[in-house]
Amino acid sequence: MKLKTGDKVVVISGANKGKEGKITKVLDEKVIVEGVNICKKHLKPKNNNGTGEIVEVERPIHRSNVMIIDPKTKKPTRIKMDFDKDGKKIRISKKSNEKID
C-alpha cells in the first residue's frame, strides 16, 4: 500500500469530499483520517458509572477514496514507486516528481 500513517490526504469522493487530514491508522484496505467520517457511538452504562454517553468516533474509509497531498504544490496527486541510489524503495509524487516522506 502506498499510504502510510502520518501522510496528509484529501478525500476525493463520498459524503466527506474535500476534507483534509492526516492518516492516523492504516488498516487492510481502509484508512482512518483525523477529522473525517465522524460518527456518533452510544455507550451503555457501566457498573461504576450510572449513565451512558454518546461519543464521536472516526470511522475508516476505503483507501481508494483518498489522495495524498503533494508537498510542493499542495494539491492531490498520485504516487509512483521508484528506487534510490542504494536500492531502497521511495515514493515519488507524479505532479512534481518530488520525494514524499
Question: Can you describe what's shown?
Answer:
The protein is about 0% helix and about 45% strand. The protein has about 100 residues and is mainly β. It has 2 domains: about 1-70, SH3 type barrels (Roll); about 70-100. The chain has a 6-stranded antiparallel β-sheet with strand order 6-3-2-1-7-8, with no helix packed on it.
* Helix-strand category: mainly beta
What is the CATH architecture assignment of the largest domain? Answer: Roll
Poorly predicted regions:
none
Beta-strand fraction estimate: over 45%
Strand order of the largest sheet: 6-3-2-1-7-8
Average of pLDDT:
92
Tell me the number of structural domains.
2
Annotation, overall tally of beta strands = 11
Secondary-structure element pattern, one letter each: EEEEEEEEEEE
CATH fold call of the largest domain = SH3 type barrels
CATH class of the largest domain: Mainly Beta
Number of helices: 0
| Helix content class | under 10%
How would the global form be characterised? Answer: elongated
Q: Characterize the largest beta sheet: strand count, sense, and whether it forms a barrel.
A: 6 strands, antiparallel
Please give the alpha-carbon distance between the first and last residues.
15 Å
Q: Using only CA atoms, what is the Rg? A: 18 Å
List the helices and strands and how they pair.
Layout: E1 8-11, E2 20-26, E3 30-33, E4 38-43, E5 53-58, E6 61-62, E7 66-69, E8 76-77, E9 79-83, E10 89-93, E11 99-100
Antiparallel strand pairs: 1-2, 1-7, 2-3, 3-6, 4-5, 7-8, 9-10, 10-11
